[in-house]
Structures are given as C-alpha cells and as structure tokens.
Write a structure and sequence with these properties.
mainly alpha, two-stranded parallel ribbon, 23 helices, about 0% strand, 2 strands, about 70% helix, 2 domains
Length: about 525
C-alpha cells in the first residue's frame, strides 16, 4: 500500500518528536493504521451511491461536497473589499462548517475508547498514544480545510497579494486547533454533568442538521445574499468584539492592507494566545476526559416518565393489542436508530421547505400577492411520504427482524397499522402542522380550512402508499437504502397525490365544496384504512 502524504510530511519532523521523548516509529505505525481505516469508512454525507466494497475512496471524490462549499464561499467573499468583513464572513462559515463536519464525521476519533482498551494493554507510552489521537484529528481537519478553505485562499490572493498566503495558512491551523479544543471542551462539559446518551443525541442532532444543510441549505443561502451591497459594507469596532473569535482573524489582513489600530494588534495577539493556552489546558484535562469517556460504553437509561403522550396516543387509537404494541415498538425504533433518523429527517425537512421555497419562487415576499391556489404547494408534503415509507424497510439493527416471522403473527395488517400510526404520529402529522403554521402566519388564516383538509387527506392516503412501499419493516441493512426504488412505485404514489390535489382544487371551486370534500374524507377514512397491506413481503 502506498504511504500517506501526511505521514511523509510528518517524517520531516521526526527529530522534533524524538527530542520530546516520543517513540516516533510507534507513533507513525498507529497513525498509519488509523488513516487506512479512515479510507474504508463511509462518510456521514454519502447519499448518492451505495457503499462500495471495502477499498479506498479517492481524495477528491470523498471531499467533493467540501470542495463545492469551498467554491461557493470563495465566490461570496471575492466581492467583499473590506478585509475585516471579508474574514468575518469567511471565519464564520469556516467555523460552522468545520465544527459540524468534525462533530458529525469525526467524533468517533475524539470519543474513541478503543485506544485505551487495545493499545494501552501493550507496553506503550500513554503520551505517544494521546499524541497519535491529536495528530489523527489534525490531519483530518487539514485535509478537510484544503477543500473548504483552498478556493478562498485563491480568491484572497487574487484581490490582495501573495504575501497573504503564509498568514492565511497559519490562521487556518490556529482555527483548526481552536475548533478542536472548543469541541473537546463541550464534550468534556457534557460528560462531566450528564450521561453518554445525551452526548450521542447531540452528535446525532448535528449529523441531521449537517445533512439538511448540505441537501437544501444552498437554496436558502442564495436568496439571502445581495451581491450589489457587498462592496459597500465596512467594519465598525465595538469593545464586545474582543470576545468574538470570528472577528479576530481579519486583523492581520487589515494591518497588512491599511495599517493597524490598537484593537487590531490585540486581535492578532488573541489569535496566537487563546489557542495555545487552550491546548495547554486540554493536555492537563485529557486524562480526566479519558475517564469520562467510559460513560459512552454504557447505554443511557430512559426515565419511566418519558413518552407519556406517546403511550396515551397508542392506547386511544388502538383497541387491538398487536397494533398497540406495534405502535410502541415502531416509535422506539424511530427514537433509537440514529442512522435511520439520519436518513428520514433530511427528507422531512425537504417537505417543510419545499412549499415555502415555492412561494418565494412565485414572487411572494414582502408584498404578499395571494393568487388563491398557494395551498396546492402543501401537497409536496405528501410526496415525501413515499421516501419515508421506503426507508422504514431498513434499519441499523436489521438482523433482529427475524422476530416478525418467528413470532408467528397472524394479524399482519394490525402490525402494519401500528407502524403507519407511529409514522403519522412522529413524522407526517407534525410535518403538515408545521407547514400549516407557516401558511397561517404568511397568509393570515386564508388557507386554514385547506390545511385541515390536507391533514385528513394525508391520513387517508397513508394505507394506499403503504400498499405500494411497505415490506417487512426494519428488515434490510441501512446501507442498501441508497439503491433506487422502482420508478413505477414513485409514479404510482405521485399519481395518488396528484389526484388528491386535483379533487381538492375541484371542490374548492364549488360553493361550499371544500366543506363537502372535508365531510366525504372523514366518512371514507375507515374504508380506506381497510386497504392496509396484508402479509409480509
């Protein structure tokens, strides 16, 4: 196997490590093993292709999304002429994206306890093992920064001078160190006062936010940028800025371009002092953190008082014991399967934002021009149902699905009923209510009855779409969920949603028609729910 470039660079510094009494050969061997394992690990943001058989992903292919974000950021800051404002925007975006990627895609390194369990049983120096972990994280972050910050460096050099290159690179290294330390201190604080379950929930929430941001965030960002005013904005100092690290990193560039005022030199000093002092503090606390990480090896226990509303809903809507237990089990799966949530919630976020984006695309903004048919955009929520239905066939714990068959269920329709009720309770009804609140605020109750009709219609079509997509629930490996479903299924579900929208539009054009349609939907609901899938596929 070819050697890693980062290790060849590190070889140049082996004399320094030996002077610090570090066993460099052992350090290098540990790092090489960690980097090989990184190459075989699928990133969190991996939505396009099924994971290939074990092998190394090319550097560019593995960081393509990082490069796209870096190019977008460079294009944005290219138009800004004020050095402080330029670096403020860059540092803010850099801090947010690097922190989210570090937490979502690399927390397993920072929170890894295998070093303690595997390496420390051997005659190894703990200082070497701890340094290997820090260097592993820094190599990852610098590799990530090449794609996120590289295009911005080109943009800054094009508008300034090549002398900014060493300053920019030094600042990136210091930013990385500061981001790593802030993340480590947050983990340390959470583990000090809470259990490992809360920390896992925080990491999972950030993974979901990152996936949503990468999936649809650019559509919002483009609409928020007014490129015509970027060249006219200028920085104004305030004493509170001494406590804002994002503003510090523009000071050296401002000094190089226009000379310095007193606060700029203080900012520059803070850039150097804060990361170094924080790193020394981290080294002193690292042993304490290693002991706190043992909390992650235990599973967090939920309080008995939790999920009371869920239990109450399950008892109210289910008289059958099988469907009630299926409702309870499905909700437990949706809560506990973190990787499944990482697939479902970005799809739901698309359902929330699509109707809103459609309104803006139609020109509805500060001066709201109501055409009367905007409620039809809400039917995009129902299109999301097919994606979620497809995903519930998969799970991280798919090996346990044998219980469905081995337990001898005869009333499989009741099993599916509980599953679909859990999906409605946890995903679909909150999705429509959230969009309904947005529409009620924007359009001032004009479409309130349409939102109620849509809510009932969504419950009505659930068994129909379930008939198309549902198989044995939670029974396939989650990695296989990236495979494309048949287009026939999608177009069939699209036809059902389109038909519901047309019927809604037709009845709304009639006098009292919308009320008649609402009454009909309520009456046919029990009949439609007779179409629940029968038997396991």
């Amino acid at each position: 196997m070819n050697d890693f470039f980062s290790l060849r660079v590190l070889d140049l510094l082996q004399g320094m490590f030996k002077k610090l009494d570090i066993n460099y050969e052992v350090l290098r061997a540990i790092l090489k093993t960690k980097l090989i394992l990184d190459g075989r690990r699928a990133p969190v943001i991996n939505t396009k292709e099924k994971r290939r058989e074990e092998g190394k992903t090319s550097l560019l292919k593995g960081n393509l999304l990082h490069l796209i974000f870096g190019v977008f950021l460079a294009f944005f800051i290219y138009f800004i002429r004020d050095e402080m404002i330029r670096m403020m925007y860059f540092s803010g975006a850099f801090f947010i994206m690097t922190t989210m990627y570090l937490i979502s895609d690399f927390s397993f390194v920072l929170l890894d306890t295998s070093d303690k369990n595997i390496l420390m049983t051997k005659p190894l120096d703990s200082k070497t093992v701890s340094l290997a972990k820090v260097l592993h994280i820094m190599i990852y972050m610098l590799r990530l920064n090449t794609f996120i910050a590289g295009p911005s460096l080109i943009a800054i050099v094009m508008t300034s001078s090549p002398l900014t290159i060493p300053v920019f690179i030094l600042e990136i290294i210091l930013m990385d160190l500061l981001i790593f330390l802030i993340t480590a201190f947050i983990y340390l604080l959470v583990l000090k006062f809470f259990n490992g379950e809360l920390l896992r929930n925080i990491i999972n929430a950030i993974q979901i936010m990152l996936t949503i941001l990468v999936t649809i965030g650019y559509q919002i960002a483009i609409r928020m940028i007014d490129f015509t005013d970027l060249q006219n904005i200028s920085y104004k100092f305030h004493v509170a800025h001494y406590f804002n690290p994002i503003l510090w990193f523009g000071a050296p560039f401002e000094i190089m371009s226009n000379g310095g005022k007193g606060y700029l030199y203080v900012f520059t000093l803070l850039i150097l002092v804060v990361p170094i002092v924080s790193f020394i503090l981290y080294l002193n606390l690292s042993k304490n953190m290693e002991s706190l990480l043992l909390k992650l090896e235990g599973e967090g226990k939920e309080k008995a008082s939790k999920h009371r509303i869920e239990k109450l809903v399950g008892m109210l809507i289910n008289r059958n014991e099988i469907s009630r237990q299926s409702f309870k089990f499905s909700n437990a799966m949706f809560r506990s399967d973190r990787n499944l949530k990482l697939k479902i919630y970005p799809a739901l976020s698309t359902g929330v934002l699509l109707p809103v984006l459609m309104i803006f695309n139609m020109g509805v903004g500060g001066e709201i021009e109501i055409r009367g048919s905007e409620y039809l955009f809400l039917y995009f929520n129902l299109l999301i149902f097919s994606s979620v239905y497809s995903l519930v066939n998969y799970s991280s714990a798919w090996q346990g699905s044998y219980v469905f068959v081995s337990s001898g269920f005869r009333e499989t329709s009741e099993l599916y009923r509980g599953l679909m009720q859990a999906m409605a309770y946890r995903f679909f009804i909150p999705l429509i209510i959230l969009n309904g609140i947005v529409y009620t605020i924007v359009f001032r109750f004009k479409f309130l009855i349409d939102i109620i009709v849509l809510l009932i219609a969504s419950i009505a079509i659930m068994p129909l779409i379930g008939k198309i997509y549902l198989k044995l629930p939670f029974s396939k490996p989650l990695d296989e969920s990236n495979q494309k479903d048949s287009y026939a299924k999608f177009f069939l579900s699209l036809g059902i949603v389109g038909l519901m929208a047309l019927i809604h539009f037709f009845f709304r054009a009639l006098y009292m028609g919308i009320w008649i349609y609402l009454a009909v939907l309520i009456l046919v609901l029990p009949i439609i729910w007779k179409f629940i899938p029968q038997g396991m596929k």
